[in-house]
Amino acid sequence: MGNRLTATDQPLSSIIGKPDSLFLIPRYQRNYAWSLEQITDFWNDLTGGNETFFAGSIVVNTETKAATEGYVEVIDGQQRLTTSTILAAAIRDQFIPLDQETADDIQAEFIGKKDRKTKEYKYKLLTSQSLQAYFQRHIQRREREPFPENPKPGQETFVKQNYDFFMTEISRLLERETEKSEKNKILNQIYDSLLDMVVIYIEVN
Q1: What pTM was estimated for this model as a whole?
Q2: Quick check: 23 and 116 in contact, CB under 8 A?
Q3: Which of 61, 140, 196, 201 has the fewest CB atoms in 10 Å of its CB?
Q4: What is the pLDDT of residues 69-127, one digit of tens each?
Q5: Start-to-end CA span in the chain (Å)
Q6: What are the backbone dihedrals phi and psi of residue 37, each rounded to the nearest 5 degrees, phi first?
Q7: CA separation, residue 131 to residues 96, 113, 138, 145 (Å)
Q8: What is the CA radius of gyration of the chain?
Q9: Strand order in 54-61's β-sheet?
Q10: Buried b vs exposed e over 35-59: b needs ≥16 C-beta within 10 Å?
Q11: SS3 42
Q12: Neighbours of 65 (CB within 10 A)
């Protein structure tokens, strides 16, 4: 029997927001490498006021679920998924001094949480093995560790650079407001824009 393929336009919330949505970046994928130019375009498209931000495609291989504890392999779209996780972490961290409960909700919905049955903590996205420990330590952990001052050149530097970019851009928006409720409103708007981002989601089996 040949491969089966399904393709649908879906908001990111329908893809990563499901409790059983788990994604694995296989080792054959290229390293994370989004530059400031690409991150700036992503941010401007996301926050530019357009009703729908179309972010390209995410292609996954669902055959791997049985062998990878429920994770599907990402064939295409790992740069978008990794960047989206970095942004979700930045929004989470901006929420922490304002609304810890919402910060925890973002962590559970988008980044990772304890499995109800196994009690094992699972991250929604497992990056390539060469980045995984660094990404979990400095991005995905609920109480993440500060970045090292001089990360390794390449993907570790890109992760820090892009997290710092998102934190700076969000801070600029928050600084315009004095009321806590207005700051929360801005953060929720950014997070909603991320969840509403539309991708072509392609499953190959």
Answers
A1: 0.94
A2: no
A3: 196
A4: 789 999 999 999 999 999 999 999 999 999 999 999 999 999 998 877 777 889 999 99
A5: 11
A6: -65, -45
A7: 25, 20, 11, 15
A8: 17
A9: 5-11, 198-204, 54-61, 72-76, 23-24, 125-126
A10: eeeebeebbeebbeeeeebebeebb
A11: helix
A12: 17
Q: Are 168 and 26 in contact (CB under 8 A)?
A: no
Dihedral sign of CA atoms 30, 31, 35, 39 in order? positive
* Per-residue pLDDT, 1: 46
In one-letter notation, the amino acid at residue 109 is E
Per-residue pLDDT of 139-169, as tens digits, reads 999 999 999 999 999 999 999 999 999 999 9
Q: How deeply is 26 buried, as exposed, middle or buried, from its count of CB atoms within 10 A (0-12, 13-18, 19+)?
A: middle
CA pair distance 77, 61, nearest whole angstrom: 12
Structure token pair of residue 27 = 């080792």
At how many degrees (to 10) do helices 36-47 and 155-174 cross? 40
Structure tokens belonging to residue 181: 């409720």
Buried residues in 143-166 as b, exposed as e (16+ CB within 10 A):
ebeebeeebeeebbebbbbbbebb
